[in-house]
Amino acid sequence: MTPVVVIGAGIAGLACARRLADAGVSVVILDKGRGIGGRVATRRAAGLQFDHGAQYVTAEGARFAAVLQELSQKGAVALWADGSGRSHLVGTPGMSALPKALGAGLEVRQNALVTGLTAVAGGWTLRVGDSDLAAERVVITVPAPQVAGLLGAVHPLVAPLAGVRIAPCLTLMAAVRRPAPFVTRKDAGDPLSWIAQDSQKPGRPGGEATAWVAQVSTAFSEAHLEKTPAEIVALMLPLLLDRLGASPDAVTHAEAHRWRYARVTTPLGKPFLRSADDSLYLGGDWCIGPRVEAAWASGTAIAEDLLAQ
Ligand SMILES: Cc1cc2nc3c(=O)[nH]c(=O)nc-3n(C[C@H](O)[C@H](O)[C@H](O)COP(=O)(O)OP(=O)(O)OC[C@H]3O[C@@H](n4cnc5c(N)ncnc54)[C@H](O)[C@@H]3O)c2cc1C
Fold this sequence. Notes:
- Helix content is about 25%, strand content about 35%.
- The protein has about 300 residues and is an alpha+beta fold.
- The chain has 2 domains: about 1-35 and about 105-165 and about 265-309, FAD/NAD(P)-binding domain; about 165-265, Polyamine Oxidase, Chain A, domain 2.
- Strands 1, 2, 7, 8, 9, 10, 16 and 17 form an 8-stranded mixed sheet that branches. A 5-stranded antiparallel sheet has the order 12-13-14-11-15.
């Protein structure tokens, strides 16, 4: 049996596994995706790259500030001036550098979709693709609304998740051949509530076209959540071109991403949940709040609780 299996290689899962591995605990991380980082993600296309998930990272607490300081010394994050007089830490050469640095040296199995868990003597059996994996302890860090799909709706740890809310976010990535009129534009009253010139972040590839990432408001995202990526591009691209003062023939690339669970609006209010027999933990940003730091804090708190036992 693997001593600890973590489901999810987002920031919460990586932080948990990092803390455990540093303490000498054998841990395996499983993620359904091709990369690691979950919602801290970078996509490459048209010779450019786009941070289509988290835009930047902030630290309110001293512990996460120290983590970011260490990542900065390794060159995995750097300051970015957003054009409005504010500076933020971003991953370099992309936001995905942050989870990659956090996960360096950890055993992460990618393309490993977990479809269910069964309690057995001394631990758990996880269904992973077409095979089973045995674990003494399991840490689940998937978004709260997806937990019931793994544990079953009647599991005692599912009921406390009923109040957790996570809003969606539709995101557009576009390459546009036109001088950039601004670095970022934030307007809560605009359907296009956030626009960022990704090419301007440190370490990004340059080219004839500029890489833009745009997000629509929660209301707009909810109204159009079930549209296809092509339909989302058709909705969002004209809005972006209007804000940039550009014409459709300036566009060299456009694609959309639907984050069904993007930003926590009502968190659980405590850093994690634990089963009565201590063999199962639930964590993620949704425990604390809508930020990378919250995911890190939840994952770290789980690891420290496990180590305390
Ligand atoms: C568009 C957008 C913009 C954002 N902007 C910011 C920002 O500027 N600053 C900020 O601090 N935060 C921002 N956030 C929030 C931040 O990205 C999240 O709070 C944080 O990344 C969540 O980390 P997590 O580990 O809790 O969850 P996730 O990153 O969602 O990780 C969960 C992981 O579980 C995996 N998984 C799910 N189900 C399974 C399964 N059945 N089997 C195996 N693996 C599975 C997923 O593939 C994923 O990798 C933004 C988020 C979005 C979407």
